[in-house]
Specification:
This protein has 7 helices and no strands. The chain is mainly alpha-helical. The chain has one domain. Helix 2 packs antiparallel against helix 7, helix 3 packs antiparallel against helix 4 and helix 4 crosses helix 5. 19% of the residues are buried.
Amino acid sequence: MSEQQSAPPIDVNPVSNILKRSWGWLFGLGVFFIIFGGIGLTMTIGLTLFSMFVFGMLLIIAGITQFVDVCRCREWQGSVWHSLVALLYIAGGCLVIYDPFLASTLITAMLGGILVIIGITRMIMAVHIRKSRGFGWLLLSGLAAVVLGGLIISQWPFSGLWFIGLFIAIELIISGWTYILLALSIRQIK
């Protein structure tokens, strides 16, 4: 009688094995984000200005890219309009870099207004679905958005100096904790 040799077990989830081997990198990235988010909290104005500089550079790069596209497709009927859009991108990027304070102030005002509109919309939705479970959370979310937008607008134009930097710093800290918790949970996978 010949013994049957059993085949080695097939790895059903190779992605989890790759993640488990590199959980330390994810953990380190989380710590890195938390450290830089903490530093960002201490210098929100500088972080706002830096983000405006990066935003301006991205607009200029997008405009140049569109000009390259226009040069490649000169026969297209919309090439004149495409050129105008490219010019507007470049002009907008130059303005943002030239006066990052004004750019951050205007963007902050728009964000504050958008938050108020989103909040009012959520509260109206909550009233319409008030017989459904969880409508209170939607109402609370809408109220929070209105309050946050109102606070931003009430401090405007000064909120334009620190709000974007504060937002980026908080995002870095939240992302950092998310990566750390994800890394720790991946480490425990069996």
